[in-house]
Amino acid sequence: MFITLAWLFVAAVTVHNLEEAVFLPAWSEQAGRWHRPLAANEFRFAVFVLVVLAGVAALLATVQGRESFGAYVLS
User: What ranges do the domains of the chain cover?
Assistant: First the structure.
């Protein structure tokens, strides 16, 4: 069950970050004076890195078990 939840978490992070990668840069252009506009390429690269890190943590948790560093990072 833990492994299933770990990979569901990665899937949720991926879907959430994809949505932000598509819509957030355009929104930031109109956000007003409280938010600086985001450069789309840099933001999408950061989103990609976060998704990869979540995947690596889930992989570590899958391979090493529930009390591993990967499980700690996912938690």
Answer: 2-74
12-63 pLDDT, tens digit per residue, is 999 999 998 888 877 877 777 777 777 878 888 999 999 999 999 999 999 9
**Full-model pTM:** 0.79
Contact in structure between 64 and 70 (CB atoms under 8 Å):
yes
Q: Alpha-carbon distance 59 to 7, whole Å?
A: 8
Q: Write the DSSP string, 6-65.
A: HHHHHHHHHHHHHHHHHHHHHHHHTS-TTSPPPPHHHHHHHHHHHHHHHHHHHHHHHHH-
